[in-house]
Amino acid sequence: MRRQALWYGLPGFVLTLLGVPLYVYLPNYLHEHWEVGLGVIGVALLATRLLDMLTDPLVGAWSDQRQRRLSRRGQMLLGAGVLLPGLYGLFFPVDAWLQAQPFWYLWGVGSVTFLGWTLMSVPYQALVNDATMESSAKTQLTLSREGFGIVGVVFVLALPTLLSEAPTAQVVFEWTFWTVGLALIVSLLALSRLRLPAANVSSTVAHSGFVSSLSDYRHLWHGSPGAYRLMGPYFLNNLANAFPATLFLLFVNDALALSSQAGLLLLVYFASGLLALPFWLWLSKRVGKLAAWRSSILLAVIGFFGLYWVESGDFETYLLVCVVTGLSLGADMALPASLQADVVQRLREQGQDVASRLFGLWGFLTKLALALAVGLALPLLDFLGIGSQAAIATIALWGFYAFVPVLLKVIVLIWLMKSFQKCVIEA
């Protein structure tokens, strides 16, 4: 099973690696090297992300409907063929086209890039149910995926330091592009080695047309509401994670005055998450996935409470907070996905192969959480005068970074303890 986990987990490296350059570095990179206004870049990328958010359920329906003719591994290969040209056009724009129509160029090329990313990631998550029917094996596969994902994030964060360049230097984007290309080849070859003993389970849904395939979301809601029961706490937990993720650099710079240590703090956070993965695998086997996930949420809440003792310039205490909250990172990403894979398995045993549909919704909720965090926190902080160090803005920053995540995670904990068990034992 360890070799299976290795083959399955490798694509997680490249799919997660893309997040930092696309979400964090890209706006300033385009502004600095192609002299496009930040306003145009921001509007174009926002429109791209809104479209990207909506494509996840559509790609999920398409993936389930087409898998008889094009396997999920084949769909990922198609996604790679869409992703790489789009990524090249986004990282290395055609200057004449970009200057003539900056919004339409960035929106078009960005949409192609994100569509390719989605075409890979949705069937990739659904592939867990083709690889195994054993609950503990699903956890091992998802933890492997998230572990390689954390390695990808650490790599791309460390790349500017390794190259002795700024994160927005063109050479950093060149290395990122060629790393993505090579990693895609290696990971797709690795997936070809993956045994899929569960892939031939009969499905009544896979023969439906695309339009009826979309309507199956509604039919599934009425016929098997347990399929969606996990998504509420999953969304709130993602929203709780999205606020500190969105505000990390702002918090470190404006609230703690630790901007020079931001890179090290991020690396420690992700390294802690990576090192804790074997423990969460062991704990999930010992007490169950649900209890292990609740434990990881509780640990994150304890870590955020540690911010009470953090003051401006207090590097050591905040570093400890990063370690404690980082320990819960891998479990927070992998265990709910493994639980959802168990729900998908129960539906498959009932003749409903809807793995890609449900993981398409999974992706939609993840992106919606990120969009809400950006859309709620940043405009309000800007209105309150965060750039001018206004006291009320600093208080709001602390609230969004520390209080809101704790509140949301406590709600999730209560939700999971009171009403979630049904989602595990019935679809």
CATH topology tier name of the largest domain:
Growth Hormone, Chain: A
Q: If helices are DSSP runs of H or I spanning 4 or more residues, what is the number of helices?
A: 19
Largest β-sheet summary: none
The number of distinct structural domains comes to: 2
Structural class: mainly alpha
Q: What is the class of the largest domain in the CATH system?
A: Mainly Alpha
The CATH superfamily name of the largest domain is MFS general substrate transporter like domains
Please, could you describe this protein's structure?
The relative contact order is 0.14. It contains 19 helices and no strands. Helix 3 packs antiparallel against helix 17 (355-384), helix 4 runs antiparallel to helix 6 (102-126) and helix 6 crosses helix 17. It is mainly α. It is globular, with a radius of gyration of 21 Å. The protein has helices spanning 2-17, 19-34, 38-66, 72-91, 95-100, 102-126, 128-131, 135-163, 170-192, 210-223, 231-255, 262-275, 277-287, 289-305, 315-327, 329-349, 355-384, 391-419, 421-425. Helix content is 81%, strand content 0%. The chain has two domains: 1-200, MFS general substrate transporter like domains (Growth Hormone, Chain: A, Up-down Bundle); 218-427, Growth Hormone, Chain: A.
List keywords for this structure.
single chain, 427 residues, mainly alpha, 2 domains, 0% strand
Compile the SSE list and pairings.
Elements: H1 2-17, H2 19-34, H3 38-66, H4 72-91, H5 95-100, H6 102-126, H7 128-131, H8 135-163, H9 170-192, H10 210-223, H11 231-255, H12 262-275, H13 277-287, H14 289-305, H15 315-327, H16 329-349, H17 355-384, H18 391-419, H19 421-425
Helix pairs in contact: 1-8, 1-9, 2-3, 3-6, 3-17, 4-6, 4-9, 6-17, 8-9, 8-12, 8-13, 8-16, 11-17, 11-18, 12-15, 13-14, 14-15, 14-16, 14-18, 17-18
